[in-house]
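Archive maintenance. Older records in this collection stored only the sequence; we are now back-filling the structure field for every entry so that each record is complete. The fields below show one back-filled record exactly as it appears after the update. Entries are processed alphabetically, and CAP domain-containing protein is next in the queue.

ARCHIVE ENTRY
Title: CAP domain-containing protein
Organism field: Virgibacillus byunsanensis
Length field: 355
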Amino acid sequence: MRFIRFLVIIFIVSLVGFYLLEKNELSPNEAVDQVSKILKEKKNMMETKEISEKRTKIPLEGDIFQWIGKDSNELTKELGEPFRNDLSAYGYTWWVYTDQKEQYVQFGVEENEVKSVYATGNNLSTEPVQIGQTYESMNNEFSFSEEVTYSKGISSYTFRLNEEDRLTRPLVKITNDVFVQYYFDTFTSKLSSIRLVTGDILLRHRPYEVEYRGSLPEKLDVSEEEWAEIESGMEQQIFDITNVMRKQYQKSGLQWEENVSEVAFLHSKDMEENQYFSHYGLNGDGLKERLGAKEIYYLGAGENIAAQYPDAPAAMEGWLNSKGHREALLKDDYTHLGVGVYRFYYTQNFLEKPL
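Back-filled structure field:
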């Protein structure tokens, strides 16, 4: 069986290698080496993708709003070492704290300073609001606006929120340099998660239409090695957030499936490189064919795809608010999950397998 699996892997790599040969004019050996290297790097970064029985509650005392601007040493002093450190595409590193079941918090740290916080799950200290609070009560309190302003030096910026933005991720200005995005589950009209962010990080993400006088920050020059690390981090974030979200909706947790993650990654990569967005590749193959090529056994399967979200948490909230994607995300029958991210293309492949 191991020999058969080895032959299948070689066959898949050869097919993708042929594609790279056609697109990038590499030699056959160079194309195979390139894909093999990518998959090997991904596999080496998957060691934390297991649901741990030993993780305890995140020892957050007081509300998460206090952390913006704090030194990262205070994080480790108060919360201990992070569960994981994930490089972002925006120059900062996510310090991830999670029990992989009910609580998930990640702190964006740049030059030893906390610049962003994303939090979701149960029993988190997020005063003055709470996960699960209704949209109506929060809108009454904060009066979600169509325009939110920010100024830095001689530059000024106005974030313009359309109706969908205001319903799913309204933006509230806390101070001149600190903002909060409230993510809502539009199917229940309740708060799903919270993101705190400084003005400069918000400009790097650009999640809303922005009108400005002055200049916008330039995009960072990210190396191929850094992209591999960023993508692997986002895959892990999607896996963890998926299980925390499923717990919120009384669904069982999913197990990581390595072979399926490779299938998902190659589909994300294919979509980005060929600039299309579909569950079906340009050759007409869908999820069934992609799983079949890997000889992956399953009773049922489903797929979520997303593109151009600024990061993994944003993609997760997008799936939660889309009917078909939500059904896959919260389906009772699924037992396993593989996630593949390439640049800003995201793929989730769910499986139902006997446990």
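Update note: The CA atoms of residues 118 and 195 lie 4 Å apart. The two ends are 20 Å apart (CA to CA).
Entry marked complete.
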